[in-house]
Amino acid sequence: MVLKKIKLAVVFMFLLFGTANAFAADEGAATARQVVEKFQAELIAVMKDGKKLGYAGRYERLKDPVANSHELTKIARIVVGKEGEKLSEEQQQKLVDVFSRLSIASYAHNFKDYSGESFVFDSEEETTRGGVVVHSHFVVPDDKPVKFDYMLKEKGNSWRIINIIANGVSDLALKRSEYTTILQREGFDALINKINEKIDNYSKQ
Question: Rounded to two decimals, what is the model's pTM?
Fold first, then answer.
């Protein structure tokens, strides 16, 4: 079922920062809501072509949309917490690269087909820390809708997704708990191998 897979998807992500003018943007810049809705539209488009594209095709189609809407570098650093401070520059870059591939692979795997699903905007609010939360829900025919809360921070003249909470569950928080434990007990190489194994599993399902 798409619903069950969507609940486990994501990706995305944590602390909120930005400027006080959360709902304003420079001329030509995308607002937080526009960033979220553009990404959602691209997801639906990929779902509609999902079977024809196959996993590899969906992955290629989603590379740019994910990179252009998510703050992947910051997200990757958040999921390893203070353990990341012990990593070398080369290890930090490797982590960002493999986590970015995991994020894209997760979407390519979970948004694989279409049966009338749609995203509906609910509301938008500014946080006390200057970030923006975009509330929406994912309509699944003949099933319960999935509530999505997108947390964004301002980057340059646009906004980037830092966390996505599906029905109250943050995939980022779960990953942070898992990844920091692996780093502490098994080391960096073990973490990279585990993430690569997950990516490989996504490609085969």
Answer: 0.83
